[in-house]
Structures are given as structure tokens and as C-alpha cells.
């Protein structure tokens, strides 16, 4: 790969080139953001008891945790087009760490809800991760790069389900802290790590293979800030962006929802856990819920990889059709999971659901980089916000006293299955297909030439 251009392949053990440094730093930063964003979710059983939260209040906490992210993602996409991903990520990590640590001072429902809402800002990190890798990788592998960095970042949602109960247990049983102090200390530690990563991001990465935005603008190698004016409105006027908005609401919205409710769902609706003591039930539920998030280790990358393969064979049209298949199967799997009543059935069906949820996420962002390159940040932000809108709408189902949570999951499965047909609105002109094909062929040719030269060097 050339340091001066987008990478034509992903070299996981390369930590020196600017492309791969951005790859590794972006997924790691997103991992920590996701870990902190949902760090309180597996501890909600403890928080609910301490703060005497009702089902309705828990529902509002679920909604609040993802609602603010809608606006944060729209803003951060707009900001990335102007200042670049390096400064955007640094600022977000430093600012976002404040409410993560601040939730330790929550003492009632109102203060807890306010901090839970504020923590949601850190979820905008996803947009920067996708934006940064889209700049750093060529069309032949950008879908795989986007899906891998996002998937490994989303893995934080699974790891936090497993780690936070263990950390909580360590602080209670080994360190001797009370449960009220322990869940608070757990969140403070998560916030400190996020802040330190923000500082590291500033010093270790650059915006593009050629350099940082301000340097490139000063030398006339890229448009100035005034020249990108109107990019957000251009993205808003493209109906394909809104089709992807809906589809991402179906897949990432479902992921956010399950990250928020999974531990409580297993504790409240499965008799196997009801018969355990509270700490053991919390750990078991956290582990089982964590398996869903752990699917991000490979499943989202697989969705992007398949998207790239479909794109290589059938063009941009093929990427959109793969997205339809993935989301359609996700809806069917969710309906199946909603009917599980024992852990022996629920766990494998949840893993099947997780596979299609993550692959759908990856498939979506194997399409996004080809919608409008000049408004890439805005497109990424709008589509990313769709995931949170989906989670907010789902949250209202889970706070309703009219239906139980299994029924809510069934309703969502039906809605997602029908919404998957939105993928047929994601179309590309012959000119766009030809441009993408030319860029892909050029990237493949460059990759082959580098491989041929490698033995000689």
C-alpha cells in the first residue's frame, strides 16, 4: 500500500502506515465508547433496586440513552466534513468522558436519567470511525474495513455485558465496597480510559493518507471549509440516504435495544435465572447477553466482506441487494427469538439473530461510501442517526405497560421484515456504477502490483 493513497488491503499487523494506524485507533476508540455507553446496562438490576426505579422509568432510561445520539451523530457527521476525524474524535472522547464519570454522582431517578442521556453523546463515535476508514481505504475493501472497525468497536457492547458485572463483583467481594459505591466506581474507571484514548488519538493518527485536513487545505490539496458548505443539505435531499436511514434503524437500532435490555430480559423472563441469588443471576445474565455483542468479533466484518464481494460481482446494485437479504433474515430471526421461553432455546436463537443483526450493520456501511463522496460525513451521520431513531422507537414498546417484552420483540421482528424492502429504493445510475467499477479495478490493479513488487523488496 502507498502511504499517499487509500489502502487497497487490510494488513492487521501493520501499525506503522497511516491507514492502518487509523484503522486500529478508530476501532479501539469506538470499542471504548461503546463500552462506556452501555457500561451501566448490565448493572441496571442493581441501580433499579437502589434508586427504586419503576418499569416506566427504566424505559425512559433506555430511550434517553440512545435519543441524544440521534442529534450527536447528525452534528458529528457535519463536523467531520469540516475539521476532519482526528480532531472530531479527540474532542468527542474528552467531552464524552465527563458524563460517563459524572453518572457516579446520580442519587435519584432524575439525575440518573440526565446523566444517562448525556452519556449517549459518546455514541456519535461510530460516525467518526466510519468516516475515517472510508477516507483511508480504497473501494475494493472499504466495505470490509468499515464493517471490521465498526464491528470490533460494537464488540464493546458485548464485552461490557461480561466485564462490568465482574468488575462490580470484584469491587464488592474483594475490595469490600458497597454495591452503591461499586457501580459508580466502575463507570468512573470507564470514563478515565475514554479520556486517555482521546489524547492518544490526537497524537497517533492523521485525517487522510496524505495528511491532516488543515495542512491539505493550506496547501490547496483539498477544498476549504466554505467549499463543503451545503453538503449536509445535499445528503438530506437524497432519498437513498433515507432508505438507508430506515434500514440502519432496523439493524443497529435493534442492536442498541438488545444491548440495553438483554440482561434485564433474561433475569425477568427466564425461570432458570429467577431461582439464582441476585449476584449470580446478574453475572449469568450478563454473560448470556454478552454473547450477542460478542458476535461483532466477526459477524459485522462478514457483512461488509460479503458486501464487497457482491459489489465486485454485481456492482453497487449487488451491495444493496445483499443488504435486503441480511435485514430480511434479521426480522425472521427476531420473531423466532421472541418466542423462546428457555435458555436452551433462547441462546442459540439469539446468536442467530446476532449474526444477521451484525451482518446487516456491515452491509449498510458497505453501501454508504458510494452514495455521495463529497458529503460523506453528512451521509454517514444521517444513516448512523437512523440506528438511534430505531432504538428510540423500540424503546417506547419496552416502556409500555400494555405489552410484555417478548411481545414487543415479536412486533419489532414483523416491522423489520417489512422494512427490509426499503433496500430496493437504494439505486445507482449507470454513471455511478461505472465510476465505482473503475475505482475498484484501479485499486485491485494497484494491490496486485504491490504484491508483485513485494518479493523484490
From TrEMBL:
Q: Which domain of life is it from?
A: Bacteria
GO function terms (MF aspect): nitrate transmembrane transporter activity
Location comes to: Membrane
Task: Give the primary localization class.
Answer: membrane
Record-level GO cellular component terms:
membrane
Instruction: List residues of the Major facilitator superfamily (MFS) profile domain.
Output: 22-431
Q: Name one Pfam family in it.
A: MFS_1
Q: What keywords would UniProt list here?
A: Membrane, Nitrate assimilation, Transmembrane, Transmembrane helix
Where does the chain cross the membrane? Answer: 25-46, 58-76, 88-106, 113-132, 152-173, 185-204, 280-299, 320-337, 343-363, 375-397, 403-426
Please state which protein family the record places this protein in. Belongs to the major facilitator superfamily. Nitrate/nitrite porter (TC 2.A.1.8) family.
PANTHER family for this protein: HIGH-AFFINITY NITRATE TRANSPORTER 2.3
- What is the protein's given name? MFS transporter, NNP family, nitrate/nitrite transporter
Which source organism does the UniProt entry give?
Answer: Planctomicrobium piriforme
Amino acid at each position: 500500500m502507498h502511504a499517499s493513497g487509500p489502502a487497497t488491503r487490510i494488513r492487521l499487523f501493520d501499525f506503522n502506515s497511516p491507514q492502518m494506524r487509523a484503522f486500529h485507533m478508530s476501532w479501539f476508540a469506538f470499542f471504548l465508547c461503546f463500552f462506556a455507553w452501555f457500561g451501566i446496562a448490565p448493572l441496571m438490576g442493581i441501580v433499579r433496586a437502589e434508586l427504586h426505579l419503576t418499569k416506566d422509568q427504566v424505559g425512559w432510561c433506555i430511550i434517553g440513552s440512545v435519543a441524544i445520539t440521534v442529534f450527536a451523530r447528525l452534528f458529528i457527521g457535519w463536523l467531520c466534513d469540516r475539521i476532519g476525524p482526528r480532531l472530531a474524535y479527540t474532542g468527542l472522547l474528552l467531552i464524552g468522558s465527563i458524563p460517563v464519570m459524572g453518572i457516579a454522582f446520580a442519587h435519584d431517578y432524575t439525575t440518573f436519567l440526565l446523566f444517562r442521556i448525556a452519556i449517549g453523546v459518546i455514541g456519535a463515535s461510530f460516525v467518526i470511525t466510519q468516516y475515517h476508514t472510508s477516507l483511508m481505504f480504497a473501494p475494493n475493501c472499504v466495505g470490509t474495513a468499515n464493517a471490521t472497525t465498526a464491528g470490533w468497536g460494537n464488540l464493546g457492547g458485548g464485552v461490557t455485558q461480561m466485564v462490568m458485572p465482574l468488575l462490580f463483583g470484584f469491587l464488592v467481594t474483594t475490595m469490600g465496597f458497597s454495591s452503591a459505591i461499586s457501580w459508580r466506581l466502575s463507570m468512573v474507571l470507564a470514563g478515565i480510559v475514554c479520556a486517555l484514548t482521546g489524547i492518544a488519538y490526537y497524537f497517533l493518527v492523521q485525517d487522510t493518507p496524505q495528511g491532516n485536513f488543515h495542512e491539505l487545505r493550506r496547501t490547496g490539496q483539498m477544498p476549504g471549509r466554505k467549499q463543503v458548505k451545503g453538503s449536509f443539505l445535499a445528503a438530506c435531499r437524497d432519498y437513498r440516504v433515507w432508505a438507508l436511514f430506515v434500514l440502519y434503524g432496523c439493524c443497529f437500532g435493534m442492536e442498541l435495544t438488545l444491548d440495553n435490555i438483554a440482561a434485564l430480559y433474561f433475569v425477568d423472563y427466564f425461570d432458570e435465572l429467577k431461582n439464582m441469588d441476585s449476584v449470580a443471576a446478574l453475572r449469568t445474565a450478563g454473560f448470556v447477553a454478552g454473547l450477542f455483542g460478542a458476535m461483532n468479533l466477526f459477524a459485522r466484518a462478514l457483512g461488509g466482506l460479503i458486501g464487497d464481494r457482491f459489489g465486485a460481482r454485481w456492482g453497487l446494485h449487488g451491495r444493496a441487494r445483499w443488504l435486503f437479504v441480511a435485514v430480511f433474515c434479521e426480522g425472521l430471526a427476531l420473531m423466532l427469538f421472541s418466542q423462546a421461553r428457555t435458555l436452551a432455546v433462547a441462546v442459540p436463537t439469539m446468536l442467530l439473530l446476532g449474526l444477521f443483526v451484525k451482518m446487516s450493520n456491515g452491509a449498510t456501511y458497505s453501501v454508504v461510501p458510494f452514495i455521495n463522496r463529497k458529503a460523506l460525513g453528512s451521509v454517514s451521520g444521517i444513516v448512523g442517526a437512523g440506528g438511534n431513531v430505531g432504538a428510540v422507537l423500540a424503546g417506547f414498546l419496552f416502556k409500555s405497560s400494555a405489552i410484555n417484552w417478548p411481545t414487543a420483540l415479536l412486533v419489532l421482528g414483523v416491522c423489520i421484515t417489512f422494512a427490509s424492502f426499503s433496500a430496493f429504493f437504494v439505486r445507482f445510475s449507470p454513471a455511478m456504477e461505472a465510476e465505482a467499477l473503475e475505482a475498484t479495478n484501479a485499486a485491485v490493479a494497484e494491490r496486485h502490483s504491490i504484491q508483485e513488487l513485494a518479493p523484490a523488496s
